[in-house]
Amino acid sequence: MPLLQKTKRFVAENIKPGFHDKRLASIEKLKLQHVLKRKNPYLFRAKAVAIAGELVKQILDAHLSSNEETLFGEFLESMAIFVCHEKFGGVKSTAEGIDLEFSRDSQRYAVSVKSGPNWGNSRQIKKMISDFERVRRIVAQQNRAQIMCVNGCCYGQDGSPHKQTGNYLKLCGQDFWFLISGEPDMYRTIVEPLGFEARQRCNEFNEAYERVLNLFTKEFIDHFCNPGGALNWAKLIAFNSASKSQWQP
């Protein structure tokens, strides 16, 4: 079976359990207190949000957006490993910080897979470079062929792939999918199967979202609004940020 067909089948079989089901489960088990603890209340105060339902919706949407990025990033990583395994015998690496290892055209590659090009701060990038250096040392000690380290990003663009600091390649979007598949059009081919059952699954998610939003709004009003209906910002800030340690200088 051609690689493109195998990839379509992989997505069709795994997008539901690998993303849609996890996305639905994540909202159904959410607790308002958990969400309020993780978001910055000062930001919403500075934005002059004064309606309880609007505040809850913004906080919930911010939480879900970051969660979805994580879930879908995990799915994309699994798909990239599958594609590379089918084409070049790639395997999930056991080395710290490395997601994929494979050989192509007599060159060995160690790949750290990320969702997009703007995935980390300077400290996180230094950590990746350190992981690359560790892999190179291991390869040198084993007297194996030199390995090429790659920061592979599933979407986006980078006009300067050769990174001097850290001596690695940063390949994004089409360049990354071409590296691991040998198919120049793979980055566009995967769009079609990603929509498999998407409408039905999104309808299920939206129904759950509406229920959670209603329940969260009621709970928020009960706990963080004054009897007259105004938001009690002092109580919300205290819930989010009041000291638990009784620390003293």
Task: Note down, in words, how this protein is organized.
The model has no long low-confidence stretch (mean pLDDT 90). The longest helix has 37 residues, at 52-88. The N and C termini lie far apart (68 Å). The radius of gyration is 23 Å and the shape is globular. Helices cover 59% and strands 12% of the residues. It has two domains: 1-83 and 197-239, Orthogonal Bundle (type ii restriction endonuclease, domain 1), CATH 1.10.3250; 89-187, type ii restriction endonuclease, domain 2, CATH 3.40.1560. It has helices spanning 3-28, 32-38, 41-46, 52-88, 122-141, 174-181, 186-189, 191-194, 198-224, 233-241, and strands spanning 91-92, 100-104, 107-114, 147-153, 162-163, 168-172.
**What would CATH call the architecture of the largest domain?**
Orthogonal Bundle
Query: Structural class per helix/strand content?
Result: alpha/beta
| Overall morphology | globular
Cα Rg: 23 Å
Layout of strands and helices, then pairs:
Blueprint: H1 3-28, H2 32-38, H3 41-46, H4 52-88, E1 91-92, E2 100-104, E3 107-114, H5 122-141, E4 147-153, E5 162-163, E6 168-172, H6 174-181, H7 186-189, H8 191-194, H9 198-224, H10 233-241
Parallel strand pairs: 3-4, 4-6
Antiparallel strand pairs: 1-2, 2-3, 5-6
Helix pairs in contact: 1-4, 1-9, 4-9
